[in-house]
Give the backbone structure.
Amino acid sequence: MEGAYRKGQQEEIMAKKSSKDDNKAELQAKYIQFELLGREFEQIEAQRQLVELKAKELKILRDSIDHVIKGEGFSQLGEGIYVPSKFTEADSFIVDVGKKIFVKMDKTGAKKYLEKKVKEFDDALEKIDCRCQEISVEIQKQAADLQGI
């Protein structure tokens, strides 16, 4: 009779230990998921900042097209490098439309092209904001779950 009692105690101790191990594993899994969500949020936020910067640059460029006039000025060669230039036409632009394809456009066409690009970036920002909100809600849910364990 005593052996059966001892066996029952051992099974109970093993069940408690197993339950603790399960809780520990569950806690670790939830914590890892919480950390991954945090990293994803940071990456998406960094992506958002880049997209927002590019959209602002395109808006400035779109608005600057109206200020191009015939005469002398400066053309940008690259990052912060400009060369003196003579503009013989104020209504003619060469636009890189992607994949190194250049198209000659007038002022109206160039502005329409830039407006289309701005809209694409604004749409991308909306999608990024939506994903950030989803991740934020999931992070809050995971944090509450972790506190409850």
Observations:
- Residues 2-64 form the longest helix (63 residues).
- The chain has one domain: 2-148.
